[in-house]
Amino acid sequence: MNRSVVYHTTYHRRQTVYNYFRHWQGLRVWQKYTQTEHRCKAQMSKPKLPRPIPEQLALVRSYREKWRAIALSTARIDRSSVTTVIHKIYNLIGINTPVLHFADSPSGGTLMLKEFMESCNYSPLQSLSCQFQQHLKEALATQLTGSPQGGVYPVGLVEQLDSALRPQLYNQLRSHLEAGVWAQPQQYAQIWSTFLTQPWRYQFCYITPEWWACDGSYFDFLITVLNCEHNSKHWQLFQSLVRECGWIFPFQEICIVCDRPTRIAFDVNRRLHAEGEPALEFADGFRVYAYHGVRLPERCGSVSPDQWQVEWYQEESDASVREVLLQQLPHHLFRKEQL
Known about the structure:
alpha+beta; four-stranded antiparallel β-sheet; disordered N terminus
């Protein structure tokens, strides 16, 4: 090949590479500029949060315990009040309220939802759980703090209110309740296969007030003690949902509201715990057994620990349950190869 041709070919390749990188470098600079601009605008739009004085900070514990008590209520829901709240929330979202159904437990609500899907020949349902969250919880967080996550307050209030409640209300109550529904007997296998026909995932199709109560303690302090600006209609609906409802399965075609448990039991460390009886129980007989925060199968949870059998340890596949059995059963009952 002619030397001049080789030179020009190499030159054009280099120029192409140079232009390519110059383009992307410019694009990165532009992206960095726009990101900075958006960040500055967001900071300018954020409300100025007042710094609480010591007397106000002394009230943190009372607000935390207020919302803990709300979340752990075992009082029966008032269906008339619930109906009013649900109608207002659907109206806020801009969707006509569907037929409202009531269930005695999240397990009963799950079964009711499955039967409704079958009656609709498995046609896709429109879940509204994200809309509930966006129009209430995230909207309030944005109004109060400038962030939909709400965790931007500079003096650790989130840790003292919201985060302080989560180990009990979310990690224990909500998580064990959810796991208890999933661990239902074999006939529930058909329920889960029915849900696979839908465009949404089961664990994201419901609202759990015990989780929202964690945010409620934080919002309440900002609104009541620090007088932060907010939409009073949103705040009223948020409080009503947490106070009046159990689990909610909100859809465009149907809305199912579940009742609260009739029994909740914790140990001194606020872990779900009961010996020989359910730690969580509902009016329809749905139960969750737990031992110091570890969910147990019914055969273990329904009897006192001194009646547990070595064979159960051998047959159990869950590592956490095996550990509880190993700790409670007399070690002399085990053969060396069983440990």
